[in-house]
Design brief:
The chain is of the alpha+beta class. 19% of the residues lie in helices and 25% in strands. Strands 1, 2, 4, 5, 6, 8, 10 and 11 form an eight-stranded antiparallel β-sheet that branches.
Length: 212
């Protein structure tokens, strides 16, 4: 009699342990699913981390325009929808030949030379992450050399009379992080962007060419 009762008690204990383990497993699994859903509003918000793979925001480190005080924008940034798609990978700023081209933020000249017949100056910007942001200017006859440290407002070259893809002369200003093109105007704080009227000049009648 006692042996039979002992066996029944052992079976009950094993069943109880099995159910407890199953219940604990279900609880942990449920929490593991629920917790990310509960915090889904945090990524991208003011206090949450950026989603994996998202481009970090562009810091407004610019302290001056690359040409002039508030040059007319003759063509705005228009990112392509595909890697090799049509678009405009930068902004065009009206600037006659000989206009001084200035560094918009502190950094180091990473390239100064000619690409496809155009003079190009590229500057890696300080304190903008890894890899750092890079500004590019063309067509520019560079006066700065690769490796030069530059401060905001330092002259790095002048606009060349040839090599522009604008109907009138302009400076093409680009911004990249690694191989991703970004809007260079996002480098400028609101105070510089609001200084003077913003004008986007018409570009009708311009023959289509390869994406820039």
């Amino acid at each position: 009699m006692r042996a039979e009762r002992f066996r029944r008690d052992r079976r009950r204990q094993r069943c109880l342990r099995t159910w407890l383990a199953l219940l604990l497993g279900l609880t942990v699994t449920a929490l593991g699913i629920a917790l990310p859903a509960a915090g889904a509003s945090a990524p991208g918000g003011a206090n949450g981390p950026a989603p994996p793979g998202a481009d970090p925001p562009v810091p407004a480190v610019g302290r001056t325009w690359p040409v002039g005080v508030r040059p007319p924008v003759t063509r705005a940034w228009d990112p392509p929808t595909a890697e090799y798609g049509r678009g405009h990978r930068g902004v065009d700023l009206a600037a006659p030949p000989g206009t001084p081209v200035r560094a918009v933020a502190p950094g180091r000249v990473s390239f100064a030379g000619r690409v496809a017949g155009r003079g190009v100056v590229s500057i890696a910007l300080d304190s903008t992450g890894d890899p750092p942001l890079r500004t590019t200017y063309e067509p520019v006859r560079g006066t700065a050399k690769k490796g030069d440290e530059v401060a905001p407002g330092d002259i790095v070259g002048v606009v060349e009379p040839t090599g522009s893809h604008c109907p009138a002369h302009c400076l093409h200003w680009g911004l990249l992080r690694a191989n991703t093109y970004l809007d260079p105007l996002s480098l400028l704080p609101p105070g510089l962007l609001r200084r003077g009227p913003s004008r986007l000049l018409p570009v009708s009648g311009v023959p289509e060419g390869p994406p820039t």
